[in-house]
Structure formats: structure tokens, C-alpha cells
């Protein structure tokens, strides 16, 4: 466990405190940075605080504001009690991400549902948490068989668990885990009077403080890196959902905080700023970064020419949120340099 002293410029009494689970991760690290910049005191959890290589960015973030790092594991009941104690908001970002697990039912689905409820029980025990913001995924919204095109999916849309379990497409455990954890979280929140808001982000793009990013970043850079396993993730998204939808990490983190602070926010929120396709991304990258020799003629034959499905963030926008990064150019702005720093792309 390590921590920093409060910034003397802001008295402790004025600060709100937020817990972010999964501070070692890509999104968690970016959310912590934004919360600290916004004047929050932050408590975050990592599985292994002694792993200095993995957590060095958290030491650096302590220069921005008061950040406490605590050990917690989703698999251990009560593990998050200390992390959420005294917090105004709890951002549930940590989740099992081993999408290639040989036992997805146990390691992804069961672990995600149990882990989410575990943190929520800690929130109830804390008695101070005014809002829980759960990071789910568009994988819980759009992974369902839809014929034809022109579909617009809002928050009423749920991925089809029966279809996924019966057909077992690649990485099927991930969307199933997100649907089931959302439903259990919602049931638990109602039962215990917790104010819960759920965010369903699409593939996240952009630079974060974390020195390792194994989720969306290798996939959205796979056109440039040539990493076929990472490209397969993008291909699965397009085939399974009918589009590749993107959001910049800064917009996502601003949406997380917006939904924590907006008293009237309720239910699920899609978070997508652009609905596109593999072909459109490949063409954009080939044009903007000719040095990577992206071969747009060599894409698999079954990629989409245009999105069949649009993930709508109209609810988020209607309630006052504005996306800052809307075009491929804006969304991809700093992720190339980040990819180089992570060793995903050559320098
Ligand atoms: N990246 C995206 O495009 C995207 C899109 C939609 C939704 N999301 C969701 O956003 C959240 C964060 O994703 P990410 O992209 O930031 O992934 P990430 O970099 O892999 O971060 C996942 C975090 O969860 C933690 N974690 C995993 N298993 C845990 C356990 N048993 N106990 C405690 N902590 C555990 C990890 O800790 P360790 O470092 O110890 O492994 C890590 O901090 C996830 O819920 C993900 O489903 C991501």
C-alpha cells in the first residue's frame, strides 16, 4: 500500500473522494488522472501493489493529487472494504479481461459477476457511496444476431446470452460476462438502495498513464503492428456487432465523471462517438501513416463496407454530455505515440 499527502491548495474538507478499482489498468489509470486533475482525492485498488513495474504510473500520478493505492482482489470477499470506505463515488472498472480463457464460464462470467457484487457489498458497508458507476461494455449491448442493416441500438438493447452460449463465437464469454454482471448489479443496487449508473463503452482508443495496455489498444493498432491475434479481436467485434465503434479514452473518462456527478443520471449509457468499420479505419490509417504500409487490398473478404449497426449515445448527449473526439483523425490522435511507448509499434 502506498499513498500521497493531500495537496495543500485544496482543503481535505472540500474534496470529494472517489474509489477507482483497477488502477493498474488502461482505463483505470486514465480515470484516476482525470479525477485527480479535477480535484478529487482518489483511492485505487491493484491486485499487487508490490509490482512496481506495473504500478509505476500510480507513483507518478501521486504528484497530481492525493492518491492512495490499496491491494484488493475481486475474488476475495470484503477485499474492497478499505478502498471504498469514506468514498463519495465508486468507479467499478476492474474486471477479468482474459478473453482467451479456456474456461470462460468460470474465469470470465462467474468471476466477473461475483467480483462486481463483491465490490458492491463493500459499497453498501461503507455507507458513504452516493453513486456507483459500473463500467460494462458495448459487448453487453450489441452482440446479437441482427439481419440486414440500418439498426440503431440504444440502451434497451441487450446482447443475446442464449445465442452466445449456444453458438460460442470467439471470445463469447466476455459479452456474456458483461450482460450478466450488469443484470446482477442492477438487481443488487435496487435491493440495497444503491444509486447505480452503468456505462457501456465501445472500443477505447487513446493514450493513458498505464505502461501496459492489453485490451483495446493492441487491437486498434493491429493494422499498423501487423499483430494478427489482435486484429482477430477487431474482426470479432465487427462480425459480432455489425460495426466497429470507437471512443477516445478522454471522452470515456469524462463521461464516467459526468455520470457520477449528475444526480439525475440513471440506468445504462452507451458511450460511442463514432460507428465505423475495419475498411474505413484501414483506409484512414493507410492515408495518414503511409510509413506503416497498411495494405487495404489485403483485408479479409467478409469485412463490412459500411456499418450495419449504429450504437447510439443519444441518451448521454441528451443529458448534457459532449464528445470532444468525433472523427478518426481526432480519436487516433495520440495513440500512435502511446503504441510506440508500449512497444506495440516500432519507434
Ligand atoms: N478497453 C476497452 O476498449 C473497453 C471497452 C469497453 C469496456 N471496457 C471495460 O473497461 C474495464 C477496464 O478495461 P481496460 O481496457 O482498462 O482493461 P485492463 O487494462 O486489462 O484493466 C483491467 C483491470 O482489472 C483488474 N483486474 C482483473 N482481474 C482482477 C481481479 N480478479 N481482481 C482485481 N482486479 C482485477 C486488472 O488488474 P491487474 O493489473 O492486476 O490484472 C486491471 O487493473 C473493464 O471492465 C472492461 O471490460 C474496456
From TrEMBL:
Pfam families: Epimerase
Keywords of this entry: Flavonoid biosynthesis, NADP, Oxidoreductase
Protein name: NAD-dependent epimerase/dehydratase domain-containing protein
Gene Ontology BP terms: flavonoid biosynthetic process
Signal peptide: none
Family note: Belongs to the NAD(P)-dependent epimerase/dehydratase family. Dihydroflavonol-4-reductase subfamily.
Pathway named in the protein's UniProt entry: Secondary metabolite biosynthesis; flavonoid biosynthesis
Stored InterPro entries: Epimerase_deHydtase, NAD(P)-bd_dom_sf, NAD(P)_dehydrat-like
CDD domains: FR_SDR_e (cd08958)
Domain of life: Eukaryota
Location of the NAD-dependent epimerase/dehydratase domain: 19-271
Molecular function in Gene Ontology: oxidoreductase activity, acting on the CH-OH group of donors, NAD or NADP as acceptor
Amino acid at each position: 500500500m502506498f499513498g500521497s499527502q493531500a495537496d495543500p491548495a485544496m482543503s481535505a474538507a472540500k474534496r470529494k473522494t472517489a474509489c477507482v478499482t483497477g488502477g493498474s489498468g488502461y482505463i483505470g489509470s486514465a480515470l484516476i488522472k482525470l479525477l485527480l486533475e479535477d480535484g478529487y482525492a482518489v483511492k485505487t485498488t491493484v491486485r499487487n501493489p508490490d509490482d512496481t513495474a506495473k504500478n509505476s504510473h500510480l507513483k507518478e500520478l501521486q504528484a497530481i493529487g492525493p492518491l492512495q493505492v490499496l491491494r484488493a482482489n475481486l475474488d476475495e470477499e470484503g477485499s474492497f472494504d478499505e478502498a471504498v470506505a469514506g468514498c463519495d463515488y465508486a468507479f467499478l472498472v476492474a474486471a477479468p479481461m482474459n478473453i482467451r480463457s479456456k474456461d470462460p464460464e468460470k474465469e470470465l462470467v462467474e468471476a466477473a459477476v461475483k467480483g462486481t457484487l463483491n465490490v458492491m457489498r463493500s459499497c453498501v458497508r461503507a455507507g458513504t457511496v452516493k453513486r456507483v458507476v459500473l463500467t460494462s461494455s458495448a459487448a453487453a449491448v450489441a452482440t446479437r444476431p441482427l439481419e440486414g442493416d440500418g439498426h440503431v441500438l440504444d440502451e434497451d438493447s441487450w446482447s443475446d446470452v442464449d445465442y452466445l452460449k449456444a453458438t460460442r463465437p470467439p471470445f463469447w464469454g466476455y459479452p456474456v460476462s458483461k450482460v450478466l454482471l450488469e443484470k446482477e448489479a442492477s438487481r443488487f443496487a435496487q435491493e440495497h438502495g444503491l444509486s447505480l449508473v452503468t456505462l457501456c463503452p465501445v472500443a477505447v482508443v487513446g493514450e493513458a498513464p498505464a505502461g501496459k495496455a492489453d485490451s483495446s489498444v493492441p487491437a486498434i493498432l493491429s493494422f499498423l503492428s501487423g499483430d494478427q491475434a489482435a486484429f482477430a479481436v477487431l474482426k470479432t467485434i465487427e462480425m459480432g456487432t455489425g460495426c466497429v465503434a470507437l471512443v477516445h479514452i478522454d471522452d470515456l473518462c469524462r463521461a464516467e465523471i459526468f455520470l457520477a456527478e449528475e444526480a439525475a443520471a440513471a440506468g445504462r449509457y452507451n458511450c460511442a462517438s463514432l460507428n465505423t468499420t475495419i475498411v474505413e479505419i484501414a483506409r484512414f490509417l493507410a492515408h495518414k501513416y503511409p510509413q506503416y504500409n497498411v495494405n487495404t487490398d489485403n483485408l479479409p473478404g467478409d469485412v463490412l463496407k459500411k456499418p450495419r449497426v449504429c450504437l447510439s449515445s443519444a441518451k448521454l448527449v441528451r443529458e448534457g454530455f459532449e464528445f470532444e473526439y468525433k472523427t478518426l483523425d481526432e480519436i487516433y490522435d495520440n495513440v500512435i505515440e502511446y503504441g510506440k511507448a508500449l512497444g506495440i509499434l516500432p519507434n
